[in-house]
Amino acid sequence: MSRITTTLDRLRTEGRKALVPFITAGDPHPNYTVGFMHALVRGGADILELGVPFSDPMADGPVIQKACERALRAGTSLRGILELVRQFRAEDSETPVVLMGYLNPIDAFGLDAFGEAARDAGVDGVLIVDLSIEEAPETAPQLRGYGLDCIFLLAPTSTPARMEAVAAYGSGYVYYVSLKGVTGSSQLDPEDVAEHVREIRAHLALPVAVGFGVRDAQSAQAVGRCADGVIVGSALVQRVAELAETPESIPEVLESTARALRDGLDALA
To answer: Any catalytic annotation for residue 60?
Structure first.
């Protein structure tokens, strides 16, 4: 059983919801990423999503696009991110780590070579934003062969056929994109999210984590009422951007922000 499944099963037993923060690896410099990861765990993160910077992050809004630019300028690479995960694992053997990014860097690495290297570094899951469901029958089993959960996106426009394909090939959890558009959008409608989550659950048994539009404890709590987990990305990446010139101050801010989100979710229990 993967670390992701173990963590989500434990939280379900406890009646709690998963807090899944996202940061862009290497932003503002790779030297700080591991410290940021530990700070988020101290603040109550259950699963960490690490964005793999890419030059054309088409699903991301300006906040994460700029984070990718900063990380790439600082020399961040997919191979380097795996080394950061390895360093994180030296002190934390329990918190699941998911890499979220685009297919091109993995193709350039080689899917099998990447799977082996990611497994050995301590990665638990991979979310490839632009991996089509048509490619899933080949790609997902290869990733699972290396012990990596293959996490897929669902959106408000996803069809029942798409949901059933995700049920067949996905593992770990499903990432429900609560809004049409790119990351950083803010018009969150909790009732609409709950309706779509109910529809997703009718087609698949995987835990559902909701992202896009979750910015604070209030919105996290609203989403947590219907979802198994809450993903917070742009709000955290924005804080990193604001403090990029004083990166030593970022861990404390990430920890306190995660703790506020954690407290909001735990109030549901």
So the answer is: yes
Q: How confident is the model at residue 1 (pLDDT cuts 50, 70, 90)?
A: confident
pLDDT digits (tens, 9 = 90+) for 9-53: 999 999 999 999 999 999 999 999 999 999 999 999 999 999 999
Known catalytic membership, residue 49: yes
- The fold of 3-266 is TIM Barrel (3.20.20)
Which of 9, 14, 27, 49 is catalytic? The answer is 49
User: What is the SS3 string spanning the chain?
Assistant: CCHHHHHHHHHHHHCCCEEEEEEECCCCCHHHHHHHHHHHHHCCCCCEEEECCCCCCCCCCHHHHHHHHHHHHCCCCHHHHHHHHHHHHCCCCCCCEEEEECHHHHHHHCHHHHHHHHHHHCCCEEEECCCCCCCHHHHHHHHHHCCCEEECEECCCCCHHHHHHHHHHCCCCEEEECCCCCCCCCCCCHHHHHHHHHHHHCCCCCCEEEECCCCCHHHHHHHHCCCCEEEECHHHHHHHHHCCCCHHHHHHHHHHHHHHHHHHHHCCC
Mean pLDDT of the residues in the chain: 93
- Write down the catalytic residue from 27, 60, 124, 149: 60
Q: What is the pTM of this model?
A: 0.95
